[in-house]
Write a structure and sequence with these properties.
Oligomer: heterodimer
Strand content of chain B: under 5%
Largest sheet of chain B: none
Number of strands of chain A: 14
Structural class of chain A: alpha/beta
Order of helices and strands of chain A: EEEHEEHEHHHEHEHEEHEEEHEHH
Number of helices of chain B: 11
Bound molecules: adenosine-5'-triphosphate, magnesium ion
Distance between the termini of chain B: 26 Å
Helix content of chain B: over 70%
Strand order of the largest sheet of chain A: 6-7-8-3-9-10
Radius of gyration of chain A: 24 Å
Number of strands of chain B: 0
Shape of chain B: elongated
Largest sheet of chain A: 6 strands, mixed
Radius of gyration of chain B: 19 Å
Number of helices of chain A: 11
Order of helices and strands of chain B: HHHHHHHHHHH
Chain lengths: 318, 257
């Protein structure tokens, strides 16, 4: 399979400020790729170079193997783009906005209207079709942006924080939709501040910081590489560390014996064996009961903190 | 890209431009026509008898082709400059930059939108004049062509302003301090031949003078310069301005970061 998106040595400077600093990245056809990074990391700038809103200072950007700056009229028809900041004619009714958008991709008027109707229905906007854009609610506006991006039947869908301000139910629906599109073979590139979103959806994520990709892999792999997970067991009766001394592995007893912490051995991420051994030993004491059990750590959030040295929310509100 | 697809894209852009100004006829086309009627009322009915004839035409007849030019120029300029500036304002211009539209299609669509609105105003003005003040039109086709050329020039100027403007005010500044004086001093209300020197020579440096003098020539058959002379200036300016716009869009001037 070919590369849907190819970025090679991309550099973008704004009068001395380097927003994207030598990024190389290949996204194969059909992949769901997530781009994570704190504010100002360069996500939007990188995407702008892909869709034709910014000209690279150096390096090359390709869609389906076609150079974006040299042949934009061949790359643009493949792309559906949901920008971070809304860019719609404020005073146009939304069915017009969509009909025109279809036309910009070469659809005849009727086909464009039919497609707009199908998408408006699917996204629960059909009743509001003749409402001017600016009269929609914030979440509806975001949904319209996504609908508009689908008007050209894109093979590559690029979404820059599509779910900011969308309610939880809508967000889940959007996730389902994105999964469906992916199943149809659409390549998806998504930036998001919601780490659970990236974890739930993406085949691979790239973490970008100060214009550079600092980590790149499948979410699971990254979590295993960076996260120190642990099992926390709260007990009804205190346990003495001596009672567990025969069990190999990293564990400790805290809170005067009421709590037991277990960490996986170095170089491994599995907690099952150790937890099982500890539980067996605990249960030798007939009165012992387990009050609560938690697994801490082990999500992309932690990877993000480890890699960038700050939390995504901390970065969002410096 | 197949030709059929390119045609549809261009047609969509055009429909969008027309939709934009047609929604706002009261703000776009009607004011120019009201202005014309006011002029007819003031100079035709109330003052007309007190002003001398010029080259054998009553004063209102003499100034009407110029008033049509005024409508053409201001509407062509207003249409492209506000369309483009509004698109920058609500960022919808960024959407256009990410869909498969070529720079040439852009420029052609924007200018055509401006030309349509401008020529609509120009033709209606002349029609009103024909009915109300018995304006003869010597060569209607030439008048029409002249309007189109003028509209191309000022629609292009509107594109340049729309790209450069940093506020709605700067668009109005251009209209108030460049276009309107240029039109008023370009011979709408008098024959430049009546001016003392150096004003006559200065007027020849004003491109709008050629537009107005020429359109009067096509309508009345009376003009300060021979038609081929003003025609050459107008055609060359139109081609130059169109090319400038095309070049700016190709470079992504003020559009691509
Ligand atoms: N048009 C511009 N002119 C000058 N600097 C810019 C421009 N656009 C972006 N920058 C700068 O480039 C850097 C990267 O910005 P970018 O918008 O790509 O970040 P981002 O990762 O998308 O951030 P966010 O999560 O806040 O959307 C920032 O320092 C920003 O100030
Ligand atoms: Mg951004």
């Amino acid at each position: 399979m070919g590369q849907a998106i190819g970025i090679y040595g991309l550099i973008k400077k704004f009068n001395g400020l380097t927003a994207v600093n030598d990024v190389s990245l290949e996204i194969p056809e059909g992949e769901f790729f997530g781009l994570l990074g704190p504010n100002g990391a360069g996500k939007t700038t990188l995407i702008s170079c892909l869709v034709g809103l910014a000209r690279p200072t150096d390096g090359r950007v390709e869609i389906d193997g076609v150079d974006v700056s040299q042949n934009p009229l061949r790359t643009k028809p493949c792309i559906g783009f949901v920008p971070q900041e809304v860019n719609v004619e404020y005073f146009f009714p939304i069915d017009r906005i969509l009909e025109f958008q279809g036309g910009y991709f070469g659809l005849p008027i009727r086909a464009s209207r039919a497609r707009a109707e199908a998408l408006l229905r699917q996204f629960g906007l059909w009743e509001r079709r003749d409402v001017q854009y600016f009269r929609l609610s914030g979440g509806m506006k975001r949904r319209l942006m996504i609908v508009r991006a689908l008007m050209g039947e894109p093979r590559v869908l690029i979404l820059d924080e599509p779910t900011a301000g969308v309610d939880v139910a809508q967000r889940r629906e959007l996730w389902d939709l994105l999964r469906q599109l992916r199943a149809q073979g659409v390549t998806i590139l998504l930036t998001t501040h919601y780490i659970d979103e990236a974890e739930a959806l993406c085949d691979r994520v790239g973490i970008i910081d100060r214009g550079q990709i600092v980590e790149l892999d499948a979410p699971r792999t990254l979590i295993h590489r960076y996260c120190s997970r642990r099992v926390v067991i709260d007990l009804a009766h205190p346990v003495a560390p001596e009672a567990l001394r025969d069990i190999p592995g990293t564990w400790e007893v805290t809170q005067n014996g009421y709590r037991l912490l277990a960490r996986p051995p170095a170089g491994d991420h599995r907690l099952g064996e150790l937890t099982e051994a500890l539980m067996r030993q605990l249960m030798c004491e007939p009165a012992q009961r387990i009050c609560d059990l938690q697994i801490e750590g082990g999500d992309l959030e932690e990877v993000f903190v480890q890699v960038t040295g700050r939390g995504i929310d901390a970065a969002a509100h410096p | 890209m197949p030709r059929r697809i390119r045609r549809r894209i261009l047609a969509t852009l055009l429909r969008r431009e027309i939709y934009r100004f047609a929604r706002l006829l009261k703000q776009t086309v009607v004011p120019s026509l009201v202005t014309t009627l006011l002029f007819i009322l003031v100079f035709g009915v109330s003052l007309g008898g007190h002003i001398r004839e010029i080259s054998g035409w009553s004063y209102i007849q003499y100034i009407l082709p110029g008033l049509a030019a005024l409508g053409v120029i201001t509407n062509a300029y207003a249409n492209t400059s506000t369309s483009l500036y509004a698109a920058r304002f609500d960022r919808s211009i960024e959407n256009w930059l990410t869909v498969p539209i070529s720079p040439l299609q852009f420029v052609v669509a924007l200018i055509s939108g401006g030309v349509l609105r401008a020529v609509l105003v120009g033709v209606l003005t002349i029609l009103i004049a024909v009915v109300v003040v018995d304006l003869p039109v010597q060569s209607p086709l030439l008048t029409f062509a002249w309007m189109v050329l003028m509209a191309v020039i000022f629609a292009s100027l509107g594109i340049v302003s729309g790209l450069r403007a940093e506020s709605w005010d700067s668009l109005a500044t251009m209209t108030n301090f460049v276009l309107t004086p240029g039109i008023y001093l370009g011979g709408v209300f008098y024959s430049v031949g009546m001016l003392p020197e150096p004003w006559q020579t200065i007027s020849y440096g004003n491109p709008i003078f050629y537009c107005i003098d020429g359109i009067r020539g096509t309508v009345l058959g009376t003009a300060d310069l021979p038609l081929w002379h003003s025609g050459a200036v107008v055609v060359a300016t139109a081609i130059g301005m169109f090319s400038l716009c095309w070049w700016l869009f190709q470079r992504g001037y003020r559009l691509v970061k």
